[in-house]
């Protein structure tokens, strides 16, 4: 047993700087039985879907907060539920990138550079426009996810294919259905 002559300190080490130990856009070797090329490709596609999903999550929260009109309460709750589900997908996507040896996009400024979902106005749009914006974002992600799922399957990355199909695509399709039904022009009550 060694004893220290310096008493322990509870003072945190502030203002630390460090070297970047893995660059974004690279993959390190992991024993997951996939080629470097397959893992690199999957990480690139997953990071694209991840960036778009983070933006979709943000859109859901924004529209949840600023919802208006006769269906305020129902949509306020629905959008918050969908946001929570999207947030879960963000974590799942990021963990898959890390599992493959990559670096998940996480900084919101970096996400904004990668996403293909257009930025909404800073103010409040009419409810149909907000719902349409969410549907368009879903379609962007679904298009990317379908294409990526097919390609990663060809490369033998069953785990990424499964995530894209069973979680991203199925959740996105279900949420899009719920949103689209709010844009059907039917009377609230019959006279």
Q: What can you tell me about this protein's structure?
A:
There is one protein chain. The protein is mostly helical and 191 residues long. The protein has one domain (36-181): Ferritin, CATH 1.20.1260. Helix content is 62%, strand content 0%. The chain is built from 5 helices and no strands. The chain has helices at 36-66, 72-99, 108-114, 127-154, 158-181. Helix 4 (127-154) packs antiparallel against helix 5 (158-181). The protein starts with 35 loop residues before the first helix and ends in a 10-residue tail after the last helix. The mean pLDDT is 95.
Key structural traits:
191 residues; mainly alpha; Ferritin; 0% strand; DPS_DNA-bd; DNA starvation/stationary phase protection protein
CATH architecture type: Up-down Bundle
Q: The CATH topology, please?
A: Ferritin
Per DSSP, the total helix count is: 5
Instruction: Quickly give the structural class.
Output: mainly alpha
Beta fraction of the residues? under 5%
Provide mean pLDDT, rounded.
95
> How far apart are the termini?
87 Å
Radius of gyration: 21 Å
Identify the CATH homologous superfamily. Answer: Ferritin, core subunit, four-helix bundle
List the domain count as a whole number. Answer: 1
Low-confidence stretches: none
Name of the CATH first level: Mainly Alpha
Q: In total, how many beta strands?
A: 0
N-to-C order of helices and strands:
HHHHH
| Global geometry | globular
Helix content: 55-70%
Main pleated-sheet profile = none
């Amino acid at each position: 047993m060694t004893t220290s002559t310096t008493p322990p300190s509870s003072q945190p080490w502030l203002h630390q700087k460090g070297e970047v130990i893995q660059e974004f856009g690279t993959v390190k070797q992991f024993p997951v039985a996939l080629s470097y090329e397959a893992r690199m490709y999957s990480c690139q596609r997953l990071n694209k879907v991840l960036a778009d999903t983070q933006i979709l999550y943000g859109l859901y929260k924004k529209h949840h907060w600023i919802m208006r009109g006769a269906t305020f309460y129902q949509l306020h709750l629905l959008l918050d539920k969908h946001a929570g589900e999207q947030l879960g997908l963000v974590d799942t996507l990021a963990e898959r990138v890390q599992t493959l040896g990559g670096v998940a996009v996480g900084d919101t400024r970096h996400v904004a550079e990668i996403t293909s979902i257009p930025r909404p106005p800073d103010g409040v749009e009419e409810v149909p426009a907000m719902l349409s914006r969410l549907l368009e974002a879903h379609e962007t992600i679904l298009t990317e996810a379908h294409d990526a799922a097919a390609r990663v399957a060809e490369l033998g990355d069953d785990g990424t294919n499964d995530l894209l199909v069973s979680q991203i695509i199925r959740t996105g399709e279900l949420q899009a259905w719920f949103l689209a039904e709010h844009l059907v022009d039917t009377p609230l009550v019959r006279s």
